[in-house]
Amino acid sequence: MQAKELQEQLVKMGENIGASGADGIVGANTRAALDRVLKKEKLNFSLWSDARRRVAFEQIVYKKAGFYEGELDGLVGEQTRQAVRLWEASKVSPQTLDRELTWKSESLKTLPEAVPPLVVRPGQVKPFKVPTQTEINAAREKWPAQSQMRNFFGAPGTNLVRMTFPYPQVVAWDLTSTVTSTLVNAKCLKAFTAIFQKTLDHYGMDEIRRLRLNMYGGCYNNRSMLGGNVPSTHAYAAAWDIDPERNQLKWGRNLASLDAPEYDAFWSFVEMEGMISLGRHANYDWMHFQATKNFK
Asked: To which H or E segment does residue 162 belong?
């Protein structure tokens, strides 16, 4: 969070940051306001650095927004990084992006300039089985309705097992980190493993890297759904996010990379396991697919 945005959040909380207001300079008044907020949260922060106090304040903001369920410790871990991604994604709308891109030619409007469009190579696409709608519907029957997730998967944060990836994945919010496993709900272990094993068998690692199907955006995150207090599908470790940079929360298929033809095989693997892609069914949050027979 940039300094000016941090100051704006302090003001929204009713804190006095001085006569200069949100000027983007973290001075004595801003630091004092930060300390007041941390004190209200009853945090033991007296020995923390300024940087750690700022992170703790951001965690408070993300928690109030429903993006963060971790400890208010001022430390940047996986849950904090995911909260940052969700916070930033929540500020972007397809309409805003369209306005920003009106000066570009239509051929360049598929993705913002900072994220170049994927080069599609249809000649390299291998044959794969396209499931019928009847097959997809039948596969979904093994999963609960979204309203029945607790009864099926257990309480959020329970019934977790460690899944070893069929191929290494890169942490989407920290490209220097590679992971080989993650926590998933025990009832999803077989399906998630099958999806990524089929992905490896079909595409191979070179294509997986080119298509960014190794960009891990998260599975288990014990938080509420955006803008509410109902547990997220991620709280049950029954949902997966992939390549969030190119498939942001509010992007439609005009922006999301995962709508390209080369991903059809991947989505067939997802759908044959009965899981739902929000992008393919509602044209938003293309990074996300979940183990439910429906979605809200």
From this structure: strand 160-171
Do 35 and 166 lie in one domain? The reply is no
58 with 164, same domain: the answer is: no
Please answer whether residues 66 and 228 qualify as being in contact, where contact means their C-beta atoms are separated by less than 8 angstroms: yes
Is the same domain home to 148 and 39? no
Nearest residue to 186 (alpha-carbon basis) of 236, 231, 233: 236
**67: Cβ contacts below 8 Å, ≥ 6 apart:** 82, 83, 86, 87, 90, 223, 226
Question: Quick check: is 271 in a domain?
Answer: yes
In a domain, 102, yes or no: no
Per-residue model confidence as pLDDT tens digits over 8-48: 999 999 999 998 888 888 889 999 999 999 999 999 999 88
Burial state string for 58-87 with b = 16 or more CB within 10 A and e = fewer than 16:
bbbbbbebbbbbbebebebebbbbbbbbbb
Sheet holding 276-277, edge to edge: 178-185, 160-171, 215-218, 239-242, 288-290, 276-277
Residue in 184, 187, 186 with CA at minimum distance from that of residue 142: 187
| Stated pTM of the model | 0.61
Structure tokens belonging to residue 267: 């989505």
**CA of residue 36 relative to chain centroid, distance:** 31
Q: What's the total number of domains in the chain?
A: 2
**Integer angstrom CA distances of residue 220 from 82, 266, 267:** 11, 21, 21
Domain of residue 45: give its range. Answer: 3-64
Q: What percent of the chain has pLDDT over 90?
A: 49
> 16-19 long-range CB contacts below 8 Å, 24 or more apart?
none
Decide: 17 and 29 in contact? Cβ < 8 Å. yes
Distance from C-alpha of 57 to C-alpha of 51, rounded to nearest angstrom = 10
For the chain, the average pLDDT equals 83
Q: Which residues contact 159 (CB under 8 A, 6 or more apart)?
A: 153, 185, 186, 187
Query: What tens digit of pLDDT does each residue of 108-153 get?
Result: 233 333 344 444 444 455 677 888 888 999 999 999 998 899 999 9
